Amino acid sequence: MKKLSILALLLFLLLPLQANPFRGEVSLVIIDAGHGGKDPGALGGDVREKDIVLAVAKELENQLRGDVDVILTRDDDTFLELQERSDTANSQSFDLSGYPIFISLHVNAAENPSASGFEIFIKQKVRKLALLSPATSASLISKYSSYTNSQVNDYINTVSSYLAAKLEVSISKSFPLMKDRGVKEGDLWVLNQTFMPACLIELGFITNDDEREKLTDPAWQKKMATAIAAAVKAL
């Protein structure tokens, strides 16, 4: 995986800060396939969100494996509480010369069947992560130990925004006819409780007939995974 060169961007955006815990390469990607088990997620006829996102998550793992360490919060039809997903991410060890990122995959739904497109969420910048929980790994504690909570939160916000922008560009390039609903801040558990740069991607609308057909197509799923992987590799 090519070296991630975001230090210059971080320094430009955050000149008042003197520290940067996110130097170097991404050394771990945690992929979170939403829902699972007793929770099917959004439904479109007999099509279930949990199946779509798991398929894309596994393909994304294949696309990244060999370039960077990869962890899936679930690799089968298992139900996980939201805290379990965050704990899985926060508990991981990783190469301290780099840093981890978290990508959660979901599928949208709406009452209006014409609603369409993809969108990306990052955590609300005003919300501060506590950065410690019983699941916090020694790697994360070591990574953040030299910095204030405020500094780490500001950097997490910046890297999350940078990752989201890369994802938006890559997905739009791969799917030029798909509506780009933009990058938004969201009050979402897995973003608020995951102590690293994180994005949640809504891959499309299961309630839109055209998008539902594409979301269930293995070729489309592979193409989407390739677009997401390209964004991670291009950071």
Describe the structure.
The chain is α/β, with parallel strands linked by helices and 235 residues long. Helix content is 39%, strand content 20%. The protein is built from 8 helices and 8 strands; from the N terminus they run αβββαβαββααβαβαα. The chain has helices at residues 7-13, 49-64, 82-90, 138-144, 149-174, 189-192, 209-215, 218-233; strands at residues 26-33, 43-44, 47-48, 69-72, 99-108, 118-123, 180-186, 198-205. A 6-stranded mixed beta sheet has the order 4-1-5-8-6-7. Strands 2-3 form a two-stranded antiparallel ribbon. Helix 2 (49-64) crosses helix 8 (218-233) and helix 5 packs across helix 8. The N and C termini lie close together (10 Å). Residues 7-18 have low confidence and may be disordered.
Class from helix and strand fractions = alpha/beta
Would you report the number of β strands? 8
Reading the helices and strands in chain order gives HEEEHEHEEHHEHEHH
Strand content: 15-25%
What is the approximate shape?
Answer: globular
Helix content: 25-40%
Number of helices: 8
pLDDT under 50 segments (min length 5)?
7-18
Task: Strand order, main sheet: write it out.
Answer: 4-1-5-8-6-7
Arithmetic mean pLDDT:
92
Taking the alpha carbons of the first and last residues, their distance comes to 10 Å
Q: Major sheet: size, sense and barrel closure?
A: 6 strands, mixed
Radius of gyration: 17 Å
